[in-house]
Amino acid sequence: MKIFRWFIGMIFLVGIVILIIIRPLPFLFYPDLPYIGFLGRALYIIILACILCLYRIWRGPTAADRIVAVDILGIMIVGLCAILTISTGRPWYIDIGIAWALQSFICALALSKYLEGKGFDD
Amino acid sequence: MINIIGLIFISIGLAFDFFGCLGLVRLPDVYCRLQAATKCVTLGTCSILFGTFLIVGFTAAGLKSLLCIIFIILTAPVAAHTIARGAHRAGVKLWKDSIVDKYAEDKEGEA
Questions:
Q1: Domain regions of chain B by residue span
Q2: CA distances from B80 to B17, B32, B77 (A)
Q3: Do residues B27 and A55 touch, judged by C-beta distance below 8 A?
């Protein structure tokens, strides 16, 4: 069973790598920008990292693992918004990034305070 | 030329992001995951934002990305420290091969 799960994961990772090599995301961009290939592959790599974070949120053994993964996902989506700023040429994506960073910081603080109070009954 | 330097910064940031998330999945413990993921992803995202600033230039988006770099550098260590403190106080166990726990010794000394 464990070998079966390992096999599914390897098929997934190899498929993403092949997609990165042969086909960058073409439908998000203006067609006359110069760095379309590079930025499309960069979007694939960041989406892959976000999927790894979502795996840790889905299958974290404790609540603290999930909180760490949510914090990291919030920081990484800021980078995704920065890449979208260059690739689409629309400058309001970085505003989404700033708001997301603020909200992620407040979210991490509140969740960790909740976690600290929960096991404090001795 | 400055666009090429910006793309190099973005490549470094992508590598740091990906390896940080790989550490988040692979390492055995809450504290190990926190240490790997927070440092790598903070540096990686700041590098991506700096590359964005180099490519876009002194426009509104570029200055906002510099502001976002300052904000992330200031807040990410605070969030990581608070998460680690909350996890330790909530009683999350360390990994079985960990050999030192200074924070528990300090709490013993206080009590």
A1: 2-110
A2: 16, 12, 5
A3: no
Taking phi over 0 as left and psi of -120 to 50 as alpha, with beta for the rest, B91 belongs to left
Q: Are B42 and B76 in contact (CB under 8 A)?
A: yes
* B23 CB within 8 Å of a chain A CB: no
In a domain, A30, yes or no: no
Rg value, chain A, Cα:
18
State the average pLDDT over residues B61-80: 92
Q: Domain of A85?
A: 2-25+35-117
Confidence of residue B111 (pLDDT cuts 50, 70, 90): low
CB B66 within 8 A of CB A91: no
Total domains in the fold of chain A: 1
Q: Do A119 and B18 touch (CB under 8 A)?
A: no
**Token pair 């990305």: residue:** B65
Cβ contact (<8 Å) for B83 and A83? no
Nearest CA in chain B to A99: B68
Q: Is residue A21 part of a domain?
A: yes
Q: Is residue A70 part of a domain?
A: yes
Mean pLDDT for A10-37 is 69
pLDDT by residue (tens digit) across A39-82?
878 888 888 889 889 999 988 788 889 999 999 999 999 999 99
What are the residues whose beta carbons fall under 8 Å from the beta carbon of A68, sequence distance 6 or more?
A: A56, B24, B30, B33, B34, B37, B38, B83
Q: How far apart are the first and last CA of chain B?
A: 61
